[in-house]
Amino acid sequence: QHTGLLYLMCVCGCCGALRPRYKRLVDNIFPEDPEDGLVKANMEKLTFYALSAPEKLDRIGAYLSERLSRDVARHRYGYVCIAMEALDQLLMACHCQTINLFVESFLTMVRKLLEADKPNLQILGTNSFVKFANIEEDTPSYHRSYDFFVSRFSEMCHSSYEDPDIRTKIRMAGIRGLQGVVRKTVNDELQANIWDPQHMDKIVPSLLFNLQQEEGIERSPSPETEKEKESPVELTERCFRELLGRAAYGNIKNAVKPVLMHLDNHSLWESKTFAVRCFKIVMYSIQSQHSHLVIQQLLGHLDANSKNSARVRAGIVEVISEAAVIEASGSIGPTVLEVFNTLLKQLRLSVDYELTGSYDSFANMGSKVIKVHEERQLQEAVIKTVGSFAYTLPPYQRSEVMLFIIGKIPVPGMYPALGSVTAGFQSTNILTALPTSFLDPLLSFTLMEDAEIRLLVLDILIGIIDRHDNRHKFSPVRIISDISVLKLKVDKCSRQDNLFMKKHSQRLYRHIYLACKEESSVQRHFESLYTLLALICVELANEEVVVDLIRLALALQDLALTEEALPVYTRCAIHALSAVYLNLICQLTTVPTFCQHVHEVIESRKKLVPFLLPEDVLKLEKVEGEVLFVQTKIAEILGGSGYNTERLATAYIPQITGLTLSLSFKYTGCPVVCLIFFDTVIHSVNVEELERERRRQVVERFQTAPFEEIAAHCGARVSPCLASIQQPPPSPSGSVGNGHGPSRSIPVYEMKFPDLCVY
Q: Known SUPFAM superfamilies for this protein (predicted)?
């Protein structure tokens, strides 16, 4: 019996000794009582063994995974924690080429914990995964998949566990888990692309869901709370910023689209606050050179929602406006006009909705009722956004944008958008800011019947010309005995300024002169006209320009005297405009006798006709004598101070310096014929003598009539010129070979062409 017992003991001892060493080392790290924790001495032996025999690492991992699965099934959670701690230490210590197989075992164990019902096990598995995510592996992995972890961590972010504290811990674990997945995969080309829509559609909404929870959280300002770790909202924002910061050019769309969908699905555009906050995070987190891609996605989303309610569209526009402020200057991208085209399209749609009162003309709108005040709010938001975008552009692009908006007129609602572009407009080169292609149509609007449009155009011109922020110093309009109190900023005119005035001054003067004759003008119009004239004098005037401006001021005085058909208020206002402007010019020229004459006239007006001064424009009586500025006297005074008064001696008459009408027909034939058409227009339209209705009819004819009709109208002038051109040149003998005897053709230098045909 003793012999048999001894034999059995030997057999058992031999079997135990025959177990693989790695299993014995793994078993030894587990204490008898799990509360004692990991046996550190034995853990060091296991780590040393794994480093010495890396080929055994995968078996160590498989055995640890086997033990963990058994302990989870038996609810021995203390040993589960010990197993995960051992795995974490092995991962940190080992970076050999065979670690991939060990990682597979590790991820299997993490997956097992995340699938458990116990919140503590889920959090334990997440913590281990996050540690693993921060490890840089030396060897590539070709077959590893993280799809399960994206789905499971996203699910944890939406946890609805009953206990609020545990629910918060689970959600925070889910957020950290998603952060770990992103860190592990974003720079690994061998892994599944984390930027694919199937992953982004889970990750981004999960983060936004937790970011949104701050609205319902009330945190007490107790010292204990301040010492706590970051809240779920703070953790979420940090993770969201990290995700966006890692997005490359081709991934921006996939990262931003789920944000748009989340805001749509949860009706978050209307409140605006959360939507604005989300896109502020987006704009500040992505690389600055990619910001225009976000703007383009927002614009596309706005187009997609053009048939939605005004509050939704206004929310999207508000977000676009805030994003434009954040965007770096000039980084809107190559499609600048498309940005404004989209915004103006929305403005036009909103105005159409407001005017029609329903969406009936659009598909799938049902019986929705238009709310006018909401449409008005949307229009204001669009105009504000147009201005925000324009503010980020260089001056030359702003001019293009304004010209683009002018091309949309007379579509209702475009005018305020045009004004918003000039807000904060500053340019050092007036030629760039006001090219001919922009100035001509802009000036044409100064003569429109709509008083609001005329006022808006004047404000635009003022905003562009005012480069030293002087415009507000001329308001309110008043006679000032010493303009030094205005503290005007005056610089010497540049070469570009002189070229601009040489090219466009007569056109500017003419439209200012004609704008003063508009009967519907009110006080604001004359204040704007004075500000415009004052800025021209301060910003753009050389000696020649000063003389012309004085001529213009005197011509306005004559206009008020001779045009008895004008309303009484208009004539008084023109007199006041002339007076206050000459008062400014005389002090800028610093010619004492000129100043004395102007001041004498102003003092006479104060005593006799105060209604001819800006402070008291009331009614017009018979005006003559010492209350008028004398042109010959001013010419004599300035001539004695070195000014060239030949021009000043001639009364100012508005001149047509070029074709100011907008012709929209196209013709690719003989250039002479085209020039004659232009010449015909110029000579048939005398703006000084024709009434506004006549001008409108002429413009409408050349804009809308077919080419054949225009040709027939001008044929009487075209035919003789063509006939002379078509005659053959003279032969050496002086005859033309046509059988009709000797005849001499007219040389080109003897032909009589209209003025515009000669260059």
A: ARM repeat
